[in-house]
Each structure stands twice: as C-alpha cells, then as structure tokens.
C-alpha cells in the first residue's frame, strides 16, 4: 500500500517535472512562424475575453464567473506576450503577420507598450475581483487604451 502511494507520488513528480521542462522549452524555442501562430491565436482569445467584459460593462449586467475567466485570459496574455516576438517573426517573405518592423527597431518603445498593457491587465483583474460596475467600466476603458496605443505604433491596419 505504502509502496504504491510512493510509486504514485514519484510518477506525479516525474510527470510534473516533464511538464515544467516542456513549458520551459516552448517558452524559449518558438521559431518565427510558431511565434506568429501563437500570438495571433492568443490575441484572438484576448479580443474575445475583452469583448465579453465590454459587453457586460455596457449592458450593466455582470456575470462574475465569466468576468473571472476573461480576466484570467487577459492576465495570462499579459504575462506571456514577451515570448512572442523573436526577431525571426517579423514581416518577411513567407510570413503572414501584421506586426510592424518598429517592434524590433524600437524595442524599448514596444516593451513600454507591453508593460503598460500588463499593468492595466492586472488592474482589470483587481476590478473584476472587487465587482463594482463603475470601476469595471473605467478599467475596461483604460485597458482598451493600451490595446489601441500598441496597435497604432506596432501593428499594420
Ligand atoms: C504591446 C502591443 C500590443 C498590445 C498591448 C495589444 N496588442 Fe493586439 N496585436 C499586437 C500585434 C503586434 C498584433 C499583430 C500580430 C501578428 O499579426 O503577428 C496584434 C493583433 C491583435 C489581434 C488580431 C489577431 C489575429 O491575427 O487574428 C487582435 C484581435 C488583438 N490584437 C486584440 C488586442 C486587444 C483586445 C488588446 C488589449 C486588450 C491588444 N490586442 C493589446 C500588439 C498588441
């Protein structure tokens, strides 16, 4: 009995370590085309999550479980976005992307835009936790401004 519990924990330990290894590998080893694919998919999820929050903020009917799910999607994108722009994922022959080359020529400006977004994403999650409609409305606006600020400078129309 004890032996099988121990075997089971070793099994879980081993599989967790394998998963951590896998996560670390994918975080550092995205090729250009993989990075483009990843960011497009994650930005689409981000768009859907943000739309859901905006719809609720506009209608005035808050559905907490949905808001929380959207909030988690947004903070996860904010945390992961830094991995998605290896140099080889810029506008080049064979890669279909709206990312502008200014992302790499003005990388300080791009990092700033990413940081602003992450800060407002965290505040969005806090507003969702607090659950006050007016705060959620204000924060959705502030968050939305960080999307458009980045798109204006770093994404093709
Ligand atoms: C720091 C910069 C930055 C921020 C902040 C940002 N985006 Fe984007 N977004 C981009 C770039 C760059 C692309 C183009 C990606 C590509 O084509 O490779 C993009 C693409 C998108 C797309 C299109 C994905 C597709 O290809 O179908 C959507 C939707 C989107 N963003 C929504 C949002 C929303 C909503 C927010 C804010 C909640 C946001 N983005 C914040 C840089 C940003």
Q: What is Rg?
A: 19 Å
Named once each, the bound ligands are: heme C
N to C succession of SSEs: HHHHHH
CATH fold-level topology of the largest domain: Four Helix Bundle (Hemerythrin (Met), subunit A)
Q: Can you count the beta strands?
A: 0
Distance between the termini: 63 Å
Shape: globular
The quaternary organization reads as single chain
Instruction: Characterize the main sheet.
Output: none
Q: Average pLDDT, to the nearest integer?
A: 89
The CATH homologous superfamily of the largest domain is termed Cytochrome c/b562
Q: Label the structural class.
A: mainly alpha
Please identify the top-level CATH class of the largest domain: Mainly Alpha
| Parts with pLDDT < 50 across at least 5 consecutive residues | none
CATH architecture of the largest domain: Up-down Bundle
Protein architecture, described:
This protein is mainly α and 157 residues long. The protein has two domains: 1-30; 31-154, Cytochrome c/b562 (Four Helix Bundle (Hemerythrin (Met), subunit A)). Helix content is 78%, strand content 0%. The chain has helices spanning 2-28, 32-59, 64-80, 102-105, 107-130, 133-154. Helix 2 runs antiparallel to helix 3 (64-80), helix 3 runs antiparallel to helix 5 (107-130) and helix 5 (107-130) runs antiparallel to helix 6. It is globular. The model has no long low-confidence stretch (mean pLDDT 89). Bound molecules: heme C. Heme C binds at residues 36, 39-40, 43-44, 46-47, 50, 97-99, 113-114, 117, 143, 146-147, 150-151, 154-155.
């Amino acid at each position: 009995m004890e032996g099988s519990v121990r075997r089971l924990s070793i099994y879980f330990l081993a599989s967790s370590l394998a998963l951590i290894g896998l996560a670390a590998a994918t975080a550092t080893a995205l090729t250009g085309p993989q990075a483009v694919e990843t960011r497009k998919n994650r930005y689409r999820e981000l768009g859907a999550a943000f739309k859901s929050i905006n719809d609720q903020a506009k209608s005035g009917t808050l559905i907490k479980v949905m808001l929380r799910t959207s909030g988690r999607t947004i903070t996860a994108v904010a945390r992961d976005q830094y991995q998605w722009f290896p140099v080889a994922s810029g506008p080049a022959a064979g890669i279909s992307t709206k990312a502008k080359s200014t992302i790499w020529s003005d990388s300080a400006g791009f990092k700033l835009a990413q940081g602003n977004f992450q800060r407002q994403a965290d505040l969005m999650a806090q507003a969702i936790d607090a659950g006050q409609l007016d705060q959620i409305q204000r924060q959705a606006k502030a968050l939305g401004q960080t999307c458009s600020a980045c798109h204006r400078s770093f994404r093709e129309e």
